[in-house]
Amino acid sequence: MNTNLIIFAGFVGADPVMGKASIPVAKFSIASTFKSKDKEETTWLKVACFQKTAEFAQKYVKKGARVQVIGKIKNDDYESNGNKIKSVEVSVDNLQIIDWPDKQEPASTPVSVDEIKNPFA
Questions:
Q1: Which of 22, 26, 83, 117 has a beta carbon 3.0–4.6 Å from 49's, enabling a disulfide?
Q2: Fold of 1-33+41-86
Q3: What letter does residue 58 receive in the DSSP assignment?
Q4: Which stretches of the chain are assigned E, i.e. beta strand?
Q5: How far apart are CA 26 and CA 16, in angstroms?
């Protein structure tokens, strides 16, 4: 059995950008830094939230917030100026804000995609 699951925590690099699609889509990047005795390495991860999770992200996720996402890794291969580009993005199933940059928590709690009824069912 194969499992495609990623859990990633880090700091939001910029406010989410809402995409134009038939359903709400919010995209942003998360940075996580690993420090050892002799080096420091930062990993950036692109994430995409959908429907209620996207609306939550747009309203509450801001640059500098510490978040955790749980989702699935999606590969995206495309061409740009004749060059083949490989990109990895996480399709978010669950988004949680760990630390609010302005220390003001919202009146509502994070929404998981699992809690949303499937509009196509």
A1: 26
A2: OB fold (Dihydrolipoamide Acetyltransferase, E2P) (2.40.50)
A3: H
A4: 6-12, 17-19, 25-35, 40-50, 66-80, 83-99
A5: 6
- List the domain boundaries for the chain: 1-33+41-86
Per-residue pLDDT tens digits for 61-71: 999 999 999 99
| CA atoms of 119 and 121, how far apart (whole Å) | 6
Q: Are strands 66-80 and 6-12 parallel, antiparallel or unpaired?
A: antiparallel
pLDDT band at residue 12, thresholds of 50, 70 and 90?
very high
Residue whose C-alpha is closest to residue 51's, from 102, 3, 96, 95: 95
Mean pLDDT of 106-116: 49
Q: Is residue 118 pLDDT above 70, yes or no?
A: no
H helical segments located in the chain:
51-60
Q: In this structure, what are the phi and psi dihedrals at residue 82, rounded to the nearest 5 degrees? A: 80, 0
Reported pTM: 0.76
